[in-house]
Please model this.
Amino acid sequence: MVIIISAPSGSGKSTLVNELIRQSPRLAFSVSYTTRAPRGAEVDGQHYHYISRAEFEQRIALGEFLEYAEVFGNYYGTHQRYAQKAETEGCDLLLDIDVQGGMQVMAKRPDAVSIFIVAPSREVLEQRLRKRSEDAEEVIQRRLQEASAEVRYAERYGYTIVNDNIAESAQNLIAIVRAERVRYSRQQQTLAPILATYLNP
Ligand code: 5GP
Model:
């Protein structure tokens, strides 16, 4: 199954995604391609694949992306190969992508699980962005504006997590993935032989 997680910057998404990966087996994280420069201790191939605009556009033309979007002036995209790899390995594919990408994946994969994470209020988000203190005032203002635009998409996602308490939000995220995995429709292949033992004793 494909799991889409989107959230305005500063909502605590990365912490929650890391916790989900740590606590859930059989999850494959898609490492996105981006044209933005690496930040801090980010490692090429681990956090993102860092490529030039020209290379990104070439890959768009070749149809390599499951989805892509321009966020804060840079391209970001999910390579098809991660979706294929997850499928062959029997893993669920985890996508940490923006709302534009989320819409594209939902259109292509209507059975995708979609989760939107939001801070309890704009005020709390602002406090969190300031606390990180890695961004200039102008960047903080832009992120807040962006958040107002992004929350309009919340209703298009199947689940919403209001991230007030990290531990509780992480538990909710893990619970969503666990519950989605035991849906009848996702277990048909494994269930068939089990149910057959009852039907043909
Ligand atoms: P950042 O530059 O802070 O790592 O990410 C900025 C935004 O881009 C985040 O909302 C993140 O979810 C989104 N993003 C990261 N990778 C992708 C991707 O492959 N596709 C899309 N559409 N958005 C992405």
The mean pLDDT is 96. Residues 9, 32, 36, 67, 69, 71, 76-78, 96-98, 100-101 surround guanosine-5'-monophosphate (CB under 6 Å). Residues 2-186 form a domain with the Rossmann fold fold (CATH 3.40.50.300). Residues 30 and 38 are 17 Å apart (CA to CA).
